[in-house]
Amino acid sequence: xxxSFKLDKLLTIKEKEKEKALSEYNEAVKRFEEVxxxxxxxxxxxxxxxxxxxxKMSEGLAIQDIRHFRQFVTNLERTISHYQQLVIQxxxxxxxxxxxxxxxxxxxxxxxxxxxxxxxxxxxxxQTAENRWMDEVSLQQFVHRKNWVR
Length: 150
Description:
By secondary structure, this protein is an all-alpha fold. The protein is 93% helix and 0% strand.
C-alpha cells in the first residue's frame, strides 16, 4: 500500500490555479488580438480613404468635399489613437497574465517534482522492506534446513 502524498490537496489547488491562469491568459490574448485587428482595419481604412482622396484631388474636388474629408480623417485619427492606447493596455494585460501563468506553472512543477520524489522514496522503502523480509525468510529456511539435516 502506497501512502498518499501529504500535499496532494495543495497540488490539486495549484493545478486549478494553473487552469484558471491559463484561461485568463487565453482571454487576454483573444482581447489583444481583437483590439489589434480593429486597429489594423482602422489604419487600413484611413490608408484606403487617403488614396481615394488623392485620386479625387487629381480630378478636382469641391471645397465642401475637402472639408468633409478632413473632418472624417480627423475623427478617424482620434479613433485610431484611442485604439492604439487600447492595444498598448491589452498587450500589457496579456504580458501580466503570461507572467502570472508562468509563475503558477513553476509552482505546479515544484509540487509535482516533490510528489515524484515522495513516490520514489516510498517505492524505495517498500523495496528495502521486501528485501529484508526475503532475507529473513531465506535465513529462516536455512536455519530450518540445517536443523532438519542433523
